[in-house]
Amino acid sequence: NPGNVTLTDTLARLLARLNAFDEAANLLKRNIALLRKDDVRAASTLAVSLAELHLQKDRYDDAAAAYDNALAVRGIASAALVGNEDREFVQYVLEKLIHAAKLANRPQAVRAAIERSRRLFGKDHQFADRQMIAFLEGQGSRQEALALIRSLRAARPSDPGLLRLEASVLTDLGKVDDAVEIVRNKAAVKTP
């Protein structure tokens, strides 16, 4: 039953564990094609499963293509804003796509996926900014991450997550006194 996503996914994972990767991939591809017209949600979920199988085999290009296919199956265009009904799915897929690019050590692909998320979610959505901060920190570019955090805090001074993030990066940079000061200043500004 191609419509039973859980069963198809479980069978594909089992086949992959039994060293029948090609059979697992073909099962998923076949069911994606069967479901694509009538049940795009199921088809796109199976496309994500296919991407994850590729990722487990360190096939980063194939994984990225399957993640892109998951978005395409769902009807997500690169330039259009994502509606609320698809936002969670798209965020999940983009996180996975960014993760795959990081594993492949492809910083340009990471940046491209982050910029893609900015186009899909809009410039005011924090997903892209938080992904970029995490990427910069992971690359050891803490000063650049700090600059980005500070620019975001200037635009959203009441965001406690950004305050904590700035304090954390300052601490990582060895500027513990500065981190303590911004936390104290924020605590002193709080209204009862």
Write the layout of secondary structure elements.
Blueprint: H1 5-17, H2 21-35, H3 40-56, H4 60-73, H5 84-103, H6 107-121, H7 127-138, H8 142-155, H9 160-172, H10 176-189
Gist?
With 192 residues, the chain is an all-alpha fold.
Can you describe this structure?
The protein is mainly alpha-helical and 192 residues long. 77% of the residues lie in helices and 0% in strands. The protein contains 10 helices and no strands. It is elongated, with a radius of gyration of 20 Å.
Shape: elongated
Q: Estimate the strand proportion.
A: under 5%
What is the end-to-end distance? Answer: 59 Å
| SSE succession | HHHHHHHHHH
The helix-and-strand class reads: mainly alpha
Percent of residues in helices comes to over 70%
Work out the oligomeric state of the chains in this entry.
single chain
Return residue spans where pLDDT drops below 50 for at least 5 consecutive residues. Answer: none
Radius of gyration, in angstroms, nearest whole number: 20 Å
Number of helices: 10
Total E-strand runs: 0
Main beta sheet: strand number and arrangement? none
Q: Quote the average pLDDT.
A: 90
